[in-house]
């Protein structure tokens, strides 16, 4: 289906939990946030029903997110059922990687096509500081296991921050050695990120490190907004997502379904609709489809990610 600006909307990010086993400083307060009561989070059956509505209205790519999706009990069986929904042609999952070593095989057997792993530092102490307690070696072992299980299109999401600017070359070298897709993402003024404006590192800093490698533009599988490049002779690729300095809304194809059943038309605000309450009232699938289409048509021409327009939403609730 197309939105009011003729963009084809075929990509849905689905948060299945607002719980996470990390407390990254740009995402959550040190003490975490109160998690939603059990009844506020959609059950797997409810999520599957809404995914059926979504595919009936043009969604073809589905990404499962959180919080941290692998902390939810029964996620592997749920993913198998998502993959079996007629219309789902691409199923992916975003994880912080802490539980990936023990889950990679099950994810592969469930039919997950692609994985994104959030990894903001390659230095143990710095990683522990950023995540407030994470174990880098667990994540690295999880990445290794995922590659052995056959996840060839494995992406690493790296937040651009002033405190990790000196690590950009190390991440670039990682693509020389391994078939990984490293993507640098600008810090956005959302949730806890609003208070971290001093950590914001513009895309120009990334380019300063990349240009000496003489990168060539390439296309990488997936429905995301990253612009990707390959360093000559590299096994992997490098890319960037720059929502703040380089608005890409004109090519946006996505919606976000929160774990509480709210369908977000735009990450920066400006549209969306609650699907949980109508679903629980027992409205027909046709009516749910009408609400889904209404959300698509509420999608704004573009979101505003300027720091002076910072919003108060929490990424752990929306779905990272």
Describe this structure in words.
- The protein is an alpha/beta fold and about 325 residues long.
- It has a single domain (about 10-320), classed as Alpha-Beta Barrel (TIM Barrel).
- About 30% of the residues lie in helices and about 20% in strands.
- The chain has helices at about 45-55, 75-85, 100-110, 125-130, 135-150, 170-175, 205-210, 275-280, 285-295, 315-320; strands at about 10-15, 60-65, 90-95, 115-120, 155-160, 180-185, 215-220, 225-230, 235-240, 255, 260-265, 270-275.
- Strands 7-8-9-6-5-4-3-2-1-10-11-12 form a 12-stranded mixed β-sheet.
- The longest helix is centred in the middle third of the chain and has 13 residues, at about 135-150.
- The protein is globular.
- The two termini are about 25 Å apart.
- The model has no long low-confidence stretch (mean pLDDT about 90).
Task: Give keywords.
320 residues, alpha/beta, TIM Barrel, twelve-stranded mixed sheet, globular
Briefly say what this structure is.
This protein is of the alpha/beta class and 320 residues long. It contains ten helices and twelve strands. It has helices at residues 44-55, 75-83, 100-110, 124-131, 136-148, 168-177, 203-210, 276-280, 285-297, 315-318, and strands at residues 11-15, 61-65, 90-95, 114-118, 154-160, 181-186, 216-218, 227-230, 237-241, 254-257, 262-264, 272-274.
